[in-house]
Amino acid sequence: MAQPGLAYLTIQAQSPSFPPFTFEQPILLESGYYPQDAPLTVDPSTLDPSITKAEDEIIRTVTQSATPTRNWTEKFRVPVDEPCIRSWFGSRRSYNNSPYIYFHTGVDYGVCANNLNIYSPAPGTVVYVGELTVRGLSTIIDHGWGVYSGFWHQSSTKVNVGDFVETGQIIGEIGGTGRATGPHLHWEVWANGVQVEPLDWLENTYP
Question: What is the pTM of this model?
Fold first, then answer.
């Protein structure tokens, strides 16, 4: 949602052997040319700030730490069998005739396969499973180094907090719980507390 133009990139580093180091440089933010989704009509309670802010804080708390072990070594895999995308990362959104002040924080996969399976895109530890008002039945996997995957709107979950899952392991089933207009999987990736483009992780190996 940031305006294109110059912004400052700041890098800070600390080491027991050296004094703290800070580097700052202006960078150019270019437009992502994100499209607008068709206006959506949803349950007004899922837009209530008293609910959405509390729920956002739960997610931020779960995804804020960077565990020291990097569990993935390859590109992530698609978390469904038939990757038909219904809504893209960054798309602008309007709910219940609001202005386009919202944006889509992940990728939505529709039900296009002969099953509803959701798969772990990479190895990691399950750090959250629960029912939320906006995100519905949700699962979060910690892949290490501050990288997390979130899976929203599930109809059922196949894992528990503390489970270590491998790439391709079934972790749940697609559903329509929470703020959803129909059955789909919303998959998002967090990197050091920021939601990023999930499809990049299917095409590239980071770091």
Answer: 0.93
